[in-house]
Write a structure and sequence with these properties.
Layout: E1 2-5, H1 11-19, E2 23-26, H2 33-39, E3 45-48, H3 56-61, E4 67-70, H4 80-85, E5 89-92, H5 98-113, H6 116-124, E6 142-146, H7 150-160, E7 165-169, H8 175-180, E8 183-185, H9 189-194, E9 198-201, H10 215-220, E10 225-228, H11 237-245, E11 251-254, E12 274-276, H12 285-303
Parallel strand pairs: 1-2, 1-3, 3-4, 4-5, 6-7, 6-9, 7-8, 9-10, 10-11, 11-12
Bound molecules: nicotinamide-adenine-dinucleotide and D-malate.
């Protein structure tokens, strides 16, 4: 069986597949489109992260494809309907990078609240700008969590322990689940944002969540901080840049963008109080090893006609 890997995954996953006797090819220059359509011929498993667009055309060309493994959580770069139409399994790795993503969210919360990247840059440039940075503490502040799934819950635990009050907006969870996390469930998104000093986004990117945080929603968070380590496209980048620039928000921190890689058109890159990282949420050694081996196991299970674990 042939496995094609088009985004970098940890060696542990590649080794596991090779040890199982499969031929594994890596080509990290492929981002999708005609290159992938050409490369997919004779491939039985395709493994990607977020850097490869697996469109309907790819499934149409992929006559021998059994499974697409996503070494991570979000499957918004894979046309799931097309996979279903062509009888191809799509398996993500729903657990392995959850703690890494939660830790990165906490890091981004502090980074924006204390202007750490900005102060670091000034000092490296030879300036002692101590008087210019007056930050916000998270202690005794309210955190609004939009989406209390796996990552949202890990963020809740960590920031609860740092003295934050938690409110949650998630139409798909029960009051009991929110209460178990020590959070108040608020049924209206605007009310939930209005209650927060910080808001953090942890929903998938779906037609329903695309653009769900726009000008009107940001206005509810007046004076607060927005953190998005979920997916670009959930937050309207133009509206967010304007809100921070105009002082409606104190700041924002983003790990994901509507256009990746390199969101050169995003106005957020030019706003001083916006902290950005290049989709690093899952970029820890442990997380990458976990998702690579979980994805390899999914491919091996699919090849052996065994149940494939998925989210
Ligand atoms: P999950 O499926 O476990 O949880 C998502 C939660 O969002 C669920 O509780 C669901 O009920 C809720 N939700 C769905 N639609 C909603 C809506 N309209 N409004 C409010 N809540 C809604 O997912 P997860 O594993 O926690 O991942 C969360 C996000 O983080 C995903 O977008 C994932 O791709 C992203 N992620 C990013 C990185 C990174 O590197 N930056 C790493 C891991 C995960
Ligand atoms: C994810 O959804 O798991 C993230 O995009 C992490 C990644 O693969 O970079």
């Amino acid at each position: 069986m042939n496995v094609l890997v088009t985004d970098p995954i940890a060696d542990a996953g590649l080794d596991r597949l090779r040890e199982a006797g499969y031929t594994v090819e890596t080509d990290y220059d492929i981002e999708g489109g005609t290159e992938l359509i050409e490369a997919i011929e004779g491939v039985n498993a395709l493994i990607v992260r977020s850097g490869t667009e697996v469109s309907r055309d790819v499934f149409e060309a992929a006559e021998d494809l059994v499974i697409v493994g996503r070494a991570g959580i979000g499957v918004d770069n894979i046309d799931i309907d097309a996979a279903t139409d062509h009888g191809v399994i799509v398996a993500n790795a729903p657990e392995g990078n959850v703690r890494a993503a939660a830790e990165h969210t906490v890091a981004m919360t502090f980074a924006v609240a204390r202007s750490i990247p900005q102060a670091h840059g000034r000092l490296k440039d030879g300036e002692w700008a101590k008087g210019e940075f007056l930050g916000a503490e998270v202690n005794n502040k309210t955190l609004t969590i939009v989406g209390l799934g796996r990552v949202g819950q890990e963020v809740a635990k960590r920031l609860d322990s740092l003295g934050m009050d938690l409110v949650v907006y998630d139409p798909y969870i029960s009051q009991e689940r929110a209460e178990r996390m020590g959070a108040e469930l608020i049924e209206d998104l605007h009310d939930a944002l209005a209650a927060g000093d910080f808001a953090t986004i942890h929903t998938p990117l779906l037609p329903e969540t695309e653009g769900m945080i726009g000008e009107a929603e940001l206005a509810q968070l007046e004076g607060g901080y927005l953190i998005n380590c979920a997916r670009g496209g959930i937050v309207d980048e133009d509206a967010l840049a304007t809100a921070v620039d105009d002082g409606v928000l104190a700041g924002a921190a983003l790990d994901s963008f509507a256009t990746e890689p390199l969101p050169t058109d995003s106005p957020l890159l030019d706003v001083e109080d916006v902290v950005v990282t290049p989709h690093l949420g899952a970029s820890t050694e442990a997380a990458q090893e976990n998702v690579a081996t979980d994805t390899a196991d999914a491919v091996i299970a699919a090849f052996n006609d065994e149940p494939v674990i998925n989210a």
